[in-house]
Design a protein that fits this description.
This is DnaJ domain protein. The protein has 269 residues and is mainly alpha-helical. Helices cover 70% and strands 0% of the residues.
Length: 269
């Protein structure tokens, strides 16, 4: 169990405390006591403290907070992304009232490919605990992620969640609706949401949706859209998460390329 606690402590990063910390604390049970005693899980300071605060200029304070958020977003690490994946996956998989073995296998295999068998086994213990927890607040979890995770990493989270819903070959509408709600909480706009969704559900106009354009777009507008999307979904955007996450980033990038090549072929340019 000590190995499990050490792994959790090393993976948490900015997820210490807050709604994510609370969900994880419940899920890992006895391991939390040991982790807490070592200072791994910390409670955020409570509001209404009796400590006297200095008066500060509100404009300065607003700028300082924005700077702090940007710095924390830039420091998003693989462990932060990993824990966020587990929590959001558990939320999405439970929404239709039934968690299939194929969905569980998808999570286990995904983590095994990224982190290796030993670390994946530890992650899956936490994941099973999260599946049993009933009162995880989707909105609060997403607000914490949005505040401290960069936009490219949040897009990758969304891409992964669609993979989870497709894992059992049956997509429940409630799962897609929840992912759309999660996207909103993560400050991912509708065009980005529809783009990633089209990578998995292949509607008739999927190539246009992936490139975030309409069918009426000119050839020059298609070329411009491709350059924009290739930049947005380029694997280098996730380099800070480590090599283990580059495969998923490449999958998104390749789908953008295929969408562009499809339109080139259809239009003959």
């Amino acid at each position: 169990m000590s190995g499990f606690a050490s792994w959790i402590g090393g993976a948490l990063g900015w997820t210490l405390g807050g709604p994510i910390g609370a969900a994880i604390g419940f899920a890992i049970g006895a391991a939390v006591d040991k982790a807490t005693s070592k200072g791994l899980l910390l409670e955020p300071p409570k509001r209404g403290s009796q400590q006297r605060r200095k008066r500060v200029d509100p404009v300065y304070e607003k700028r300082r907070r924005r700077k702090t958020v940007r710095e924390k977003q830039a420091q998003t690490k693989s462990g932060d992304f990993e824990v966020s994946l587990l929590v959001l996956s558990a939320i999405v998989m439970k929404v239709d009232g039934e968690v299939s073995e194929s969905e569980k296998d998808f999570v286990r295999n995904y983590f095994t490919k990224m982190y290796g068998k030993q670390r994946a086994n530890h992650a899956f213990k936490l994941f099973n605990g999260l599946l049993k927890k009933e009162d995880i607040s989707t909105r609060q979890i997403c607000q914490q992620i949005q505040m401290y995770m960069d936009h490219s990493s949040r897009l990758q989270l969304l891409h992964y969640l669609f993979g989870v819903t497709k894992a059992d070959g049956h997509v429940d509408e409630s799962e897609v609706d929840l992912i759309e709600k999660i996207a909103g909480y993560l400050y991912i706009n509708d065009r980005d949401f529809q783009s990633i969704k089209a990578m998995f559900y292949n509607p008739v106009d999927s190539a246009y949706k992936i490139l975030e354009i309409d069918k009426s777009a000119t050839n020059n507008e298609i070329k411009k859209a491709y350059r924009k999307m290739a930049k947005k979904f380029h694997p280098d955007k996730l380099e800070h998460l480590g090599e283990e996450h580059m495969k998923g980033a490449n999958e998104k990038f390749q789908k953008v390329q295929k969408a562009y090549e499809q339109l080139q072929k259809e239009r003959g340019f």
